[in-house]
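lol forgot to send this yesterday, sorry. struct tokens for the thing we talked abt
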């Protein structure tokens, strides 16, 4: 497959020589059964490449599983990977299939391979060399046919030197090394990635498009991106949701960039707590955007009335529209509220429909002066109530429409006593 087709198919953005080289290697090694060791800093795209290799191999219809060796406790990793017999250890009530059995015919992605305990490394070496393994607590040799792709963001050879990683396994895995370049070594890709991510997120959150001014572009490109593509993606998401002014200046951008600490490998925090906060902010900003849009519509309407000088003739129409608009944005109080437009003291609109001239007109409520509540909590409860009503109490659909998770919605309903 041609390199551009690969990028398109897997959503890979970038055109730098180093990235293209990595894609070419993946493309060449994919059809073979050779083990691949993917190295690269945190967030640079190692997992993405493991998928590319699997999907472009003859095993693509077979299973694929990603296992994070750093996240499995040392005591259970052998049994997770290779399975165990009933009674193999205290608590092993039944027998268990390991990934090397369930993924037979497919690909295993062993992430953070440098964290794998030495005992497990011995089992892995055997299965790589002969396709054979033995379940924990058994003596029977089993056969499997699994391709291994490993990844690391530390130098595994350092672990070899300090005796924490088997040298023979290192060479066996590293038959074809695949290095994913850090973002700061492919500066020409940074802006491309940024544009793609912001346009995806503004679509997703239905917020207006984002642009960087020239100086901000320079800041973006020259930053070192220790968290690589993932960090850039997170930042694009935050900008798309949070920034009111959609032309981003260097100064604004800098507030999203942590101070350089000298520690290059620090990934950005992307734990669940963070995602949860994000959903809450999300809803608040949606409310603010909606309010702003209503204000803009109101201003336009007033400007229209002024410009066409049809205040008297169309008064009743416009007042209906205004009433409708106020109903739409749900001013608390009485929907029957009437409006009068008063001529400005200084009448020099001169055909210029500049919005500032609107301020010369006062809009007063004849019936009663109602003040719109600006409480976000009220707006939030309102929106939630509306969404629930619209979807006849179906929380999943309501949460979807509100752009928050079902869990957050559930919590909000309790918190706000809805
Ligand atoms: N070239 C690219 N184009 C578009 N998106 C990319 C590219 N490279 C990485 N990504 C995206 O960046 C994010 C991080 O990628 P990935 O999870 O593969 O990184 P990683 O190297 O495995 O990170 P870690 O070491 O933290 O596990 C993902 O959302 C991925 O889709
Ligand atoms: Mg990863």
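and heres what i got for the seq, position by position
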């Amino acid at each position: 497959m041609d390199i551009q087709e690969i990028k398109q198919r897997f959503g890979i953005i970038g055109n730098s020589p180093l990235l293209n080289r990595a894609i070419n290697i993946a493309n060449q090694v994919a059809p073979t059964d050779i083990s691949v060791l993917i190295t690269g800093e945190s967030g640079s795209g190692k997992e993405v490449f493991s998928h590319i290799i699997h999907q472009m191999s003859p095993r693509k219809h077979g299973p694929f599983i990603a296992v994070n060796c750093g996240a499995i406790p040392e005591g259970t990793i052998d049994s997770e990977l290779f399975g165990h017999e009933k009674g193999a250890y205290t608590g092993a009530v039944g027998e268990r299939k390991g990934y090397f059995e369930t993924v037979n015919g497919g690909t295993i992605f062993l992430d953070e391979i440098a964290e794998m305990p030495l005992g497990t490394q011995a089992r892995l070496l055997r299965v790589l060399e002969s396709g054979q393994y033995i379940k924990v607590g058994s003596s029977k040799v089993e056969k499997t046919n699994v391709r291994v792709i490993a990844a690391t963001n530390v130098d595994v050879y350092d672990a070899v030197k300090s005796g924490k990683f088997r040298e023979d396994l290192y060479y066996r895995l590293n038959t074809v090394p695949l290095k994913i370049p850090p973002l700061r070594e492919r500066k020409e890709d940074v802006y491309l990635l940024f544009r793609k991510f912001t346009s995806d997120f503004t679509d997703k959150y239905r917020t207006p498009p984002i642009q960087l001014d020239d100086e901000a572009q320079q800041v973006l490109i020259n930053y070192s991106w220790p968290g690589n593509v993932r960090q850039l993606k997170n930042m694009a998401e935050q900008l798309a949701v949070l920034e009111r002014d959609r032309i981003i200046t260097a100064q604004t951008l800098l507030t999203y960039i942590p101070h350089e600490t000298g520690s290059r490998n620090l990934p950005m925090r992307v734990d669940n707590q963070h995602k949860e906060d994000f959903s809450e902010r999300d809803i608040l900003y949606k409310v603010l955007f909606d309010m702003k849009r209503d204000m803009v519509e109101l201003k336009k309407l007033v400007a229209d009335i002024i410009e066409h000088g049809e205040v008297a003739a169309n008064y009743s129409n416009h007042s209906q529209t205004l009433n409708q608009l106020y109903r739409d944005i749900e001013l608390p109080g009485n929907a029957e509220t009437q409006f009068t437009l008063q001529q400005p003291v200084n009448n020099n609109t001169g055909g210029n429909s500049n919005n500032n001239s609107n301020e010369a007109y006062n809009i007063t409520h004849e019936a009663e002066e109602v003040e719109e509540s600006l409480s976000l909590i009220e707006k939030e409860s309102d929106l939630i109530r509306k969404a629930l009503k619209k979807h006849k109490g179906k929380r999943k659909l309501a949460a979807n429409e509100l752009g928050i998770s079902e869990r957050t919605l559930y919590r909000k309903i309790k918190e706000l006593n809805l």
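The radius of gyration is 30 Å. anyway ping me if u want another try
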